[in-house]
Structures are given as structure tokens and as C-alpha cells.
Amino acid sequence: MGEHPQYSSTGGALSGDDILANFDDLHDPLNAEQVSIQASRCLFCHDAPCVTACPTSIDIPKFIRQIATRNDTGAARTILDANIMGGTCARACPTEILCEQKCVLSTGEHEPVQIGALQRHAVDHMLAKGGAHPFARAKASGKKVAVIGAGPAGLSCAHALAVQGHSVEIFEAKEKPGGLNEYGLAAYKMAGDFASREASFILGVGGITLHHGKALGRDVTLADLGARFDAVFTGIGLTAPRRLDIAGEQLDGVIDALSFIEQIRQAGDLSAINPGENVVVIGGGNTAIDAAIQAKRLGAHSVTMVYRRGPMQMGATEWEQDLAATNGVNILHWAKPVRLIGNGVLTTVHFERTQLRDGVLEGTDKHFTLFADRVYKAVGQQLVDDGLTDITCKRGKIVVDETGQTSRSGVFAGGDCIASGEDLTVQAVEDGKIAAVGIHQFLGGKHG
Amino acid sequence: MADLGCMIAGIETINPFWLASAPPTDKQYNVERAFAAGWGGVVWKTLGENPPVVNVTSRYGVHKDTARGILGINNIELISDRPLEVNLREIEAVRKNYPDRIIIGSMMAPVEEELWKSLAIKIANSGVHGIELNLGCPHGMCERGMGSAIGQVPQMVEDTTRWVREVVDIPVFTKLTPNTTDILLPAEAALAGGADAVALINTVNSIIGVDLDQMAPNPVLDGKGTHGGYCGSAVKPIALHMIAEIARNGPTQDLDISAIGGITTWRDAAEFIALGANALQVCTAAMLYGFRIIEDLNDGLSDFMDAKGYKSIEDFRGLAIKNTVNWNDLNMNYDLKAEIDQDKCIECGRCHIACEDTSHQAITMQDNDAGGRDFAVVATECVGCNLCQHVCPVPECITMVPQKNNLPYLTWPEHPKNILKAAE
Fold first, then answer.
1. In whole angstroms, what is the distance from residue B108 CA to residue B122 CA?
2. What's the pLDDT score for residue A124?
3. Quick one: pLDDT band at residue A3, thresholds 50, 70, 90?
4. I want to staple B344 with a disulfide (CB 3.0 to 4.6 A). Which of A156, A340, B362, B397 is the partner?
């Protein structure tokens, strides 16, 4: 099981079975006994702090009570009503800084209710049960909406619009729907084919057509979509990896962390992936952590994460940092890469130590080097503004009003490409929900 | 260490904890394991005349909380299904092996004098310390005119008690059913029949639950279910009340009481003793956890007595009886208000919503500067009902504080708003 990473027993490469075990569920699903004990711990708080802490405002006490009364289907409905990607969020949300952080039992018993694990139990129950789709569509409105991007924001928006009776067409650049759920999260968080099963479930409500291989600016334009549809939603994410902009970045062995993760997520045979032997990961966010741990679990000999600031400033939560440490990842703080060295192939990374002076990060002129045959760059993603004609952007994000509408009338946006909150699946789902309400009103529908 | 030895109906026991007449006391093997574990006595599982009864499979249903806690058990098992002679020989053997432990023989028979007398004599001759009349089983045996079918008719309670009393020279315990409107009626009948003690409560008639797939009461036997006898900690409050009624009412005050009903912890035991019980019987807790719970029953009770300075059980037995009164004797001027310890509060809001939705709107909720919520008692609205204190998950976070109002003790009969008083 994925809870305990397997290491090489001989010093040689990890066996195929070891690697498979390493990419199983990070946490086993709760068993029936754990479910009933955890559900019974919930105090059913009034106006519960956990709900306030959830970007999609899932009625957590209600769904946990439903689990406690053995109404798992009802629990799943409560979750999915607020968050159609409740299954992914149950697996990938940093609950330690969201619902579970605010659980009053964090104070009372120094141990929150395992909200994420209970949520997974309920949603998995519904997906496994199959049968009639839990959501029914309103009668056809006659309105058509184009959704660009089948990531969490796009799928969330498309789902809500379809339920309102609108006809939705999704234009997705990649082969599969799901966005980062399918391509960008660590495999052990999304074990099996959960992202694709979830996407199928969401699309299963009906009224949604998915077009693959259609990228904004390349295959479709806002002008064209605007002419053919009554409204447009763009959930195009941030798809351009930031560069380090240092010497040697073109060397073999210097790779974007997201490409590495995508390779893992789409691999038929994990043991065929070479993660590198001595690996350096540059960055301090969840993508950096996901790349570092997966490199280790694929059998990299040493993995060192290097972040230019301290643990407090890391984008990755304390829980994620601990997970990296327990997986044997070495984390160095207060250093930035200044040169990547190698003769065509990376051999060494040169770092300068950094410090904060009066709130400003600066080099210290103290240097060190790490031998590395592989560097994974995880220093963030940028908006690709191809095709965003007449759309106002600010600080690299699309500007929207409170209904999710951009500066271009009838074009709405959500997800990582707007500045709404943390770049998390759960936030993208909420953005999609908000925009769907905005679009519904824009199309003349009543609020709610 | 306090002395746990005590006396009931003239029988001295090394501690007040006996196992009640039930499956744990059905045979020598179980009883000797219980004595080895430290139990002071047993009431042997009820004996009847041959031929023995036949039991069914699936004999128990349980009432659970939403996790794994069992609140109560319901059983549809009958009396001992082993031949009378086998039971009697085993009783003799255990008496020899454990001479310092108590064995009471429980019995039942149809309402015929000769049957009661002959069976009582046989059991007494096996060397038991006393006889307990099972007049309580609310399932199965009552359909044959025994158990609660007798216990629900005071005259039959008196008659059966007298029949046994007349033929044995050992103490007689009359075991009462709670499935009756007024427990004092059968208790007085037992007294009139010459009982040395009453034992109560037997199980409460119940359907423990319904299997919604098979659409039949639990436990389901081949598609059918029946009502059974409910026991365990859920019935403790019912038992406490009935024992208090017997202990505090004139005619039955002198009856010794062998208290039964959901006793699970030493604290439960102390509560029954405080309401007048001379000794105690336990069944469900042992069935759920095994015999070694006797260790903490003894240890905890002894520590409690040491802490309070009670040298013997008699030192605190019945101390709560005088404070158990009718509603009309309560002080109407007593004024309690809830107080919330803000340092202990974890901001769950349970007190607020309980009061807001179902009581007196006396606890407010307001957002505070720290991003949390403050809960405050509105003293003018608080009626001191205790609901908030009970729903609060944090120990000692909400306390009920008596208000100093300098008003005298005033009962309802004396209250100015009582129209009967005003009419005087």
C-alpha cells in the first residue's frame, strides 16, 4: 500500500512490484469500522467552521451525519451538490489548511475528524453504486454555452450549466478531460483511474459534448465561439511553466516538474520511467513536493528539494513537507540555483544561498553545488494569453467581476487563470460554480 | 481500603457484586470462572421442573449508538435448558469449591402451589444460600403463564412468595418485573408473602429494532421476530427509579433490595447503593466485556468509599433516599444560570443551537475579531434547564451556577401562583 514507501532491498533499482506499491493510494480508504468511528466523532457543530473553511461550502456536518446514519448515498449527494469534484477534493485537498484545520476537535481533542477521508468514502460509494445519475437536468433552455478547458473549473461550470438545462460544448486541448486532476496531481493521490472515472460521472449528467484537441488560439477563437454560442466560459488554467532563466537551462536532464508528473500519470508501465539518479527539485509548492516524492518512489537514489525561502513561506503545507521528509526527500531552504552545469547533459547545479533583508530576498554570495543528473523545475505556471482577445489581464491573471464575467461581454472565466484564491482544485470548482450562476443570469435565467 | 463486604437478607457476601440469573450463570464452568475472577456471588440461571425448555438460535439483539457502543441488549432466551438434576449437582460442586461465595437458586413454575414448593425444596437441598423467584421474564415463559405473567399480578406475587417461604428456611428473594404501572404493588405483595428481599428490575419488554430488509423484528429467526427482554445501561434509569420508590415508601422500606438494571461501572453501583440497594446484580456488562470487569467494580467502589471516608457499604447505603422527593417538594426559588468558560470553549455552537431551536434563546453567537465565534449566556432569558451543559462536548466548559437571591425554600403547594394555594 502507498502509505509506506517501498525502498530498494539490494541497493539496486526498485522492483516493478515495489514501484506499483509506491503508487497505490497514499492513504487506504477508511474501512467500515473507521468510517463509523470517525463519523461518530463529528459534533454536528452549528454554523460549522469547517464549512466556512471549504471554498465550495460543502455542508460537512450534514454529510457526516448522513454517513453516521448509514445514508452514504445521501451523504454523497450533499457533497456533490456543493462540489461536483468532491471525489478529487477528498483525495487532493490540503484539508490540513482547510476544513480539518477548522474542525473544533482540532482544539478539543487535538485531532480533527477525518473529513477528507469520510468525503472520499461517501463519493466512492456513489460512484461504485452506479445506477441513475444523482443530478437531473432542468428542461432545455435552448441556450448554448461553450466551455474552454475540461479542467476542474470547466467541468464544474459545464456540469452546473447542464443541470440548469443549457446545452454545453467543451473544447479541450488535451486528449482526456480532468485537467490537472488527470495530468498534474501526484499519482498516489489519484490512484487508479479516478480522475477519468470522475470526469465520466460529471459528463454523465447529459447535455455536455466534449471536443478533444481543441486549444484556444490554435483551434478555436473567442470570436468564433461568441458567434456560435450564447456565452463562453474559459477555464484555461496556467499552462506555461516558468523558466529559471539561468545558464544551462537547455541541458539534457532539466525538465519541467509538471511534464514529469504528466509522464507518470499517463504511463502504462511506471518502471519504464527513469526519474534520474541524483535529483534536484527547484521550488516550494505542492507540484515540487509531488515531483520530489514521486521521483523517490520511482527509485531515484537521492532527491533534494531546494527552495529559495524558508519552510514558512513554502506553498506546500507543513503536512506536505512532512510527507516529503518521510519519503526520504531532503529539503534545503534559503538557496537559489544560479547555474546548471554539464557538457550537453546536466551534471551539477550551482546554488547561491539567500536571505531576507528588510523583507527583500537577496543573494548572500555564499555558494554551493549539488551533483545532479536531473533537475525538475517547479517554480510556477504562467497564463498563456493566446486567443484572449479583448480580455483584460492583470498580474498574469484574467480579471473577472463577482459573477465571473471578464471584460469581454458574455465571456466568463474561472480556475487557476483568474485570481480568486489558492490555485487548488476546490477553488477552481467554486469558480466554475460561480461563473455558471453568472452565465445562467446572463442568459436571462433566475438566480439560483 | 474500604470493606466491600456486606449483608443482604441475612447473607454475608465478600463484595456486593453478584452475577444475575442469566446465561453467564448457566453452568458450573461459567460460575467457577466468575468466582475465580472475583465475583462475590451468582444467582444461578433460572431452574424449572423437567423436562427442560428448548431454546431457539439467534437469542440477542442490540441497541447501538452510531459508532460501536452497545446501549442495551434484548434477549429472547428462556430459562435453563439443561436438566434440573445436572444443574443441582453442579451447584453442589461449586458450593464445595468456593465455600466463601454466594449462590442463589433462581426458579420459576406455573401458578400451582405444589409445583413451587417441590421445586423450591429440591433447589434448597442443593445447598444454595437463598431462593430467587423469577417473576419477571417478559418473553416466552410468560406465554406459558410464568415469569412476568405472575409478576404483573400482585396476588400471584404474594402467593408464590409465600409458598416458597413456607417450605424453605433460607432467605427468599422475589424478583420483580418492571413491566408494570406501579412497582410498589408487586413489592408490597412480595413483602406480604414474606420475602426477605426483592430483586429488581428484570428485563423491560421491548422490540429492539426492525430489520428493514426482512421487515421483521430483530433478532430475526427464519423471517419472524418477537418481543424480548431489554437490559444493559439503557435501562439503568428505570431501575434506579423503581428501587428508589421501594426504598423511600413506607410499607416496603424494610425490604432488602438486590438491585439489578444496567450496572456497568462502580459508579453505577454506588448510585444504586445510595438509593438503598443492599447488594447488586450484574449481567449485561459481563456479557459484553467478560468477567474481569469485576476488578474495576471492586477497585473503583473501594476508592470512592476511601475518598469519601466510608468504611463500609452500610456507611453510605441509602444516603440519597432522603433527598429523593416528589416534585411538589422541590424549591421553586432555587435559581440556576448557565456559565460558559470561554477558555475551554471550542466554538462548536451546540449550546447555542440547542437553546435557540429548542429552549429559551438564552445563548447568543457572535463573530469575534479572531475569526471565531463567541457564545454568551443571556442571564435574563436562561431558565437554568441544563440542556446546554449536557450537549456541550467539553467537560466542565458549561457550569450551572446557583444564584444568590436570598429567597426562602418555597414549594409548589406554597407557591403564590398555585391556584389551589390561593384558594385557601
1. 13
2. 97
3. confident
4. B397
Per-domain residue ranges for chain B?
Answer: 6-316, 329-415
Q: A255 with A363, same domain?
A: yes
In tens, the pLDDT along B285-314 reads 999 999 999 999 999 999 999 999 999 999
Q: How many whole angstroms separate alpha carbon B147 and alpha carbon B137?
A: 4
Is A105–B353 a contact, with Cβ atoms under 8 angstroms apart? no
The pLDDT assigned to B422 comes to 64
The residue type of B380 is T
Q: Which of B346, B365, B373 faces A107 most closely, judged by CB atoms?
A: B346
Domains identified in chain A, total number: 3
- From the list B66, B346, B352, the residue facing A104 with the nearest CB is B346
Q: Which tens digit of pLDDT belongs to each residue from B33-58?
A: 999 999 999 999 999 999 999 999 99
Q: What is the pLDDT of residues A372-416, one digit of tens each?
A: 999 999 999 999 999 999 999 999 999 999 999 999 999 999 999
Nearest-Cα residue of chain B relative to residue A70: B66
Q: What is the rounded distance in angstroms from the CA atom of residue A262 to the CA atom of residue A241? A: 13
What CATH number does the domain containing A51 carry? 1.10.1060.10
pLDDT at A1: 53
Nearest CA in chain B to A42: B348
| Topology of the domain covering B6-316 | TIM Barrel (3.20.20)
A48 touches chain B (CB under 8 A): yes
A200 and A190 share one domain = yes
Q: Which of A37, A43, A50, A64 to mutate to test the interface with B (most CBs of B within 10 A)?
A: A43
What are the start-end ranges of the H helices in B234-375?
Answer: 236-248, 266-274, 284-289, 294-308, 313-316, 350-358
Contact B365 A47 (CB under 8 A): yes
CA distance B341 to chain A (A): 14
Q: Are strands A254-256 and A240-241 parallel, antiparallel or unpaired?
A: unpaired
pLDDT higher than threshold 60 for residue B99: yes
**Separation of alpha carbons B128 and B101, rounded Å:** 10
User: Do A355 and A376 fall within a single domain?
Assistant: yes
Name the closest residue on chain B to residue A107, using Cα atoms: B346
Considering only CB atoms, B349 lies closest to which of A33, A39, A47, namely A47
Residue A202: CATH number of its domain: 3.50.50.60
Q: Give the pLDDT confidence of B133-191 residue by residue, as tens digits.
A: 999 999 999 999 999 999 999 999 999 999 999 999 999 999 999 999 999 999 999 99
pLDDT surpasses 80 at B375: yes
**Residues B365, A46: C-beta atoms closer than 8 Å:** yes
Chain center to CA of B88: 28
Residues 6..35 of A with a Cβ closer than 8 Å to B: which? 33
Q: Quote the mean pLDDT of chain B.
A: 96
Best residue of A41, A104, A110, A113 to probe chain B, by most B CBs closer than 10 Å: A104
Burial of A63-99, coded b for 16+ CB within 10 Å and e otherwise, reads bbbbbbeeebebbbbbbbebbbbbbbbbbbbbbbbbb
CATH class of B329-415: alpha beta
Domain, as residue range, for A360:
241-381
